[in-house]
């Protein structure tokens, strides 16, 4: 979109901001909805990828963070804090830097955050504290501190985060001229599925769309508390972004599932990696592993015949974060490049020309 000034500017009438709100923006939002010929053919549907990795810090978190940081600034906060598996910390750090006045502290689970995300939080000058525990434990500490000290919490239990993130659903409806029939999305702390569902419902209420999608949420099998119906004490998955055992928006995610007649299911790490590679190799879209959970999930449902009666329906898969966030996983899943002498003949031979 020409002249895009960020999602608060564009969707102001649907957001809790006033003329007094100091808008802290990095021109987030307005991400592409990419039609995938390959996945459409595989699934017998019209499949689109909402490529959220193209937000300013490389994930969908920027949608919520422009709202949370703007409102924190409006309310006179000096310090913001979050727990994070990586992307929230990267986004909070960047928006705090842009605010010009807010300091940012982030708690991360030691050893379980992708390299790019750690680099982002640090280079944007957040105070980064790695705890010997998982995300759920980090979030409990942050809740404790922000409940008792003048510190603004910017995790997705902050309602302004959900407000910002719901705009992704608006963009999809604007692009397709309606909501799709199905919407697939990875589920970790469960804020994003909550936000999309809120967005779809609000847009319909405002007559900006005619229908609501069926929501399809996917957790990693080793971190699937909603699917199992119980807290997972020691969540484990290669998709570190969604390595969460006790999601904060658990109830709201279940409501999105039930109200939309949808599903929250799990996908194994192998299924996630397979979808991760398909996305890169056959759609040209490089995502981080957690993002591929949405595509892994719909491939699984397809194999079970779930879409059989829905030929050519529209399916949007949110792919939540950029592949460059986690270079280590990419490198581990490809062939090392060959090394050879610097001459034309050798290169031609290698290519087979
Ligand atoms: N995909 C990515 C790339 C994420 O970073 C997250 C969450 C999710 C999916 C799941 O979204 O939590 O709203 O259900 N990352 C959080 C973080 C937890 O700290 O960056 P959710």
Written description of the protein model:
The protein has 353 residues and is an alpha/beta fold. The protein is built from 15 helices and ten strands. The protein has helices at 7-10, 37-43, 61-74, 87-99, 115-123, 135-148, 159-165, 167-176, 191-205, 225-228, 250-259, 269-283, 293-303, 327-332, 344-351, and strands spanning 33-35, 46-51, 79-83, 103-109, 127-131, 152-153, 182-186, 214-220, 263-267, 314-319. A six-stranded mixed beta sheet has the order 1-2-10-7-8-9, sandwiched between helices. β7 (182-186), α9 (191-205) and β8 form a beta-alpha-beta unit. α3 packs across α4 (87-99), α9 (191-205) crosses α11 (250-259) and α12 (269-283) crosses α13. The longest helix is centred in the middle third of the chain and has 15 residues, at 191-205. It is globular and about 65 Å long. The chain starts with 6 loop residues before the first helix and ends with a helix. The mean pLDDT is 97. Bound molecules: ligand F0G. Residues 59, 61, 84-88, 156, 186-192, 241-242, 288, 290-291, 320-321 line the site of ligand F0G.
Provide a short characterization of the protein structure.
42% of the residues lie in helices and 14% in strands.
Strand order of the largest sheet: 1-2-10-7-8-9
Order of helices and strands: HEHEHEHEHEHEHHEHEHHEHHEHH
What sort of overall outline do the alpha carbons produce when their principal axes are compared? globular
Largest sheet: 6 strands, mixed
SS-based structural class?
alpha/beta
Terminal CA distance: 43 Å
What share of the residues lie within helices?
Answer: 40-55%
- Whole-number mean pLDDT: 97
Give a count of the beta strands, DSSP E runs of length 2 or more.
10
- Poorly predicted residue ranges: none
Seen as an oligomer or otherwise, the chain set is single chain
Ligands and ions found? ligand F0G
Radius of gyration in whole Å, from Cα?
20 Å
Strand-residue fraction? 5-15%
Annotation field: number of helices:
15
């Amino acid at each position: 979109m020409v002249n895009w000034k960020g999602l608060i500017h564009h969707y102001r009438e649907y957001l809790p901001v006033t003329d007094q709100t100091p808008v802290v923006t990095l021109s987030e939002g307005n991400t592409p909805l990419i039609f995938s010929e390959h996945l459409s053919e595989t699934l017998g549907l019209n499949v689109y990828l909402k490529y959220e990795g193209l937000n300013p810090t490389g994930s969908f978190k920027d949608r919520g963070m422009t709202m949370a940081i703007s409102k924190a600034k409006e309310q006179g906060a000096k310090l913001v804090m979050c727990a994070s598996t990586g992307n929230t910390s990267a986004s909070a750090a960047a928006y705090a830097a842009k605010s010009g006045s807010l300091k940012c502290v982030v708690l991360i689970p030691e050893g379980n955050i992708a390299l790019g995300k750690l680099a982002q939080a640090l280079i944007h000058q957040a105070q980064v504290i790695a705890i010997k525990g998982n995300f759920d434990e980090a979030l409990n500490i942050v809740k404790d501190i922000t409940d008792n000290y003048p510190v603004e919490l910017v995790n997705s239990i902050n309602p302004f985060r959900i407000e910002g993130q719901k705009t992704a659903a608006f963009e999809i409806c604007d692009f397709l001229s309606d909501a799709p029939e199905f919407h697939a999305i990875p589920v970790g702390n469960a804020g994003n599925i909550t936000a999309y569902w809120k967005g779809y419902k609000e847009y319909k209420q405002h007559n900006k769309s005619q229908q609501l999608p069926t929501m399809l949420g996917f957790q990693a099998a080793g971190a699937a508390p909603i699917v199992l119906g119980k807290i997972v004490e020691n969540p484990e998955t290669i998709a570190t972004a969604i390595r969460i055992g006790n999601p904060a928006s658990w109830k709201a995610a279940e409501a999105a599932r039930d109200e939309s007649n949808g599903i929250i299911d799990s996908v194994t790490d192998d299924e996630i990696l397979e979808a991760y590679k398909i996305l890169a190799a056959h759609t040209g879209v490089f995502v981080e592993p957690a993002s591929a959970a949405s595509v892994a999930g719909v491939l699984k449902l397809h194999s079970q015949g779930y879409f059989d009666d829905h030929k050519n329906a529209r399916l949007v898969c949110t792919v939540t974060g950029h592949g460059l966030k986690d270079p280590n996983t990419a490198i581990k899943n490809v062939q090392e490049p060959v090394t050879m002498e610097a001459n034309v003949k050798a290169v031609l031979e290698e290519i087979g020309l």
